[in-house]
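Hello,

I think I submitted the flavin mononucleotide job twice by accident. Can you confirm which output corresponds to this input? Input:
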Amino acid sequence: MNIIASSTSRPTARALTAEEKHEIDHEMTLYPDKRAVGLEALKIVQKHQGWVSDESLMGVAEYLGMSAHELDGVATFFNLIFRRPVGRNVILFCDSVSCWIMGCDRIKEHISNRLGIDYGQTTADGEYTLLPVPCLGDCDRAPVMLMDGEQHRNLTAEKIDQLFAQRALNKEASESK
Amino acid sequence: MTDRPLTRNIDMSRAPFDIGQYRAAGGYGSVEKMLKTMAPGDVLDLVKNSGLKGRGGAGFPTGLKWSFVPMGDNAPKTKYLVVNADEMEPGTFKDRLLMEGDPHLLLEGMMIAAYTIQANTAYIFLRGEYLRAEKLLQNAIAEAHNKGLLGKNIQGSGFDLEIILHTSAGRYICGEETALLNALEGKRANPRAKPPFPQVSGLWGKPTIVNNVETLCNLPGIVNYGIEWFKGLGLGADAGTKLCGVSGRVKNPGCWELPLGTPIRELLEDKAGGMCDGYALRAFLPGGGSTDFLLPQHLDLTLDYDVIGKAGSRLATGTMIVLDDRTCPVGMVGNLMKFFSHESCGWCTPCRDGLPWIDEIFQRFEKGGGLESDMQVLTDHLEYLGPGRTFCALAPGAMAPLGSALRHFRDDFHDHIHGGGCPWQR
Ligand SMILES: Cc1cc2nc3c(=O)[nH]c(=O)nc-3n(C[C@H](O)[C@H](O)[C@H](O)COP(=O)(O)O)c2cc1C
Ligand code: SF4
Ligand code: FES
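Support: Only one job matched these inputs. Its output is below.
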């Protein structure tokens, strides 16, 4: 566990923000045991901070009255809790069987070439992280990926090009405002 | 009456019905009827006699499952209903359709199940990636609350029910019902030893029922129209309809509600339009990634639990994955093995160590470097990871496509081992 291994100066718990606490408090009303909201709390922190740092993890553990090791056991169990920084956009690319049959490997290569990243990596500008994900439940419209809360279906190399070109344009436009 | 009770309100080209539209179409009528005229035991008998089997994969009779929950004055006051909406089986895309297409139908079904076992709290355990379903369900729960269909003393019946939506964060094993309970309690999602069964000691040690989304969506129809109607929907031995999907190189991939007992050929050829031009059917997994391959000779079998079982596979989730003649069967099974290896929870040794070993062998098959002796290693694993050898059904599920592939695709394995890697141009 990287709380101990990763640094010479030991991380300390980060005080959770009022907003984070407010949302976690709401979750606590839904379960008879506050330890049960560990995953929800981690998701709330990740929503606000982008990922779950050691400091955040310790902050949540303290708030829920459980040990950081125990909570990290939960955090590391789940594919979608990020214990390392990720890009502003996480691309969850389905690599399961129906998408594989429909040629997702080639689409993945195309994305990797275009963005210059492999699975688990983040682009130098911090914009994108590419991750594999099991079946996204859209197998009849394979290949499929999830980005920005939107499912992109029936992917082709051309669609990928259009999508990222459009996003780059949108970004330029919003930055020049 | 309807012959498509699960999907009659579903039209994916528009937003799902809000509560007003849903009620106008007869929605929540079963709950009103139940609360006014039926005791919990009456509903239990009805569901038992309807022949409804679980649609989550195992096909266990729903009424029988419920009958193990302690009832009466001496039963624990706190009980739970949990909806298994963790759909993550590779190639499975049916519960998503129900939740995005008609969220109120699931809530209506949940109310019936909760009332029958007298549970006052129900959790929906939803897959974290299903963001649209999350929004729609959250909204539907709020609507039902506003209309007094959830909360305290529902419609003056004295029955209380709260429905709480829990979203997960991506781990296939959470779909296993006891692992799911650990996940809901905030623990690592390892499966639990059975017995005790969840019906007696489940969530936080209380009697708990875990049912699949599609299973619960069958309940309103059964309460509304009765046993004879439900049985009459099926064409063969099994009662009711089933969501059936087809993915792979077919002309019109998709998901349809069909009577149980429909011939597989009808699903594949009439609904899915047959194979894409230039492709022929080589084999198929009838019910998701954890089922045994069936062959073209099985196309005239019917979609019935026992019929598919006798042919050596399982109907399971009812979502068929098609292998065509231009896709490498060894690569397809390798893809599944990578998935199972990654998703093993690590609780028991055969699964934790065996699946990565199998995965490594398939990687060598692909790149070149496969050995004849690997075939024996794979065959041995069918036994080590077979039913009864592991804590949960993930490992035996993984062995289903592997074992059947070793039987049906011997020559393809041989070509990989002796041809220096995968001979298919992908
Ligand atoms: C590894 C594994 C994953 C599973 N995933 C799911 C799932 O995502 N959804 C589901 O309903 N059942 C899943 N099941 C089956 C459940 O354990 C359980 O049988 C089912 O939820 C019972 O509901 P039913 O009786 O209504 O079918 C899974 C089982 C295993 C072993
Ligand atoms: S069979 Fe695999 S997934 Fe199931 S408990 Fe054992 S290690 Fe975990
Ligand atoms: S296999 Fe990719 S969405 Fe199901």
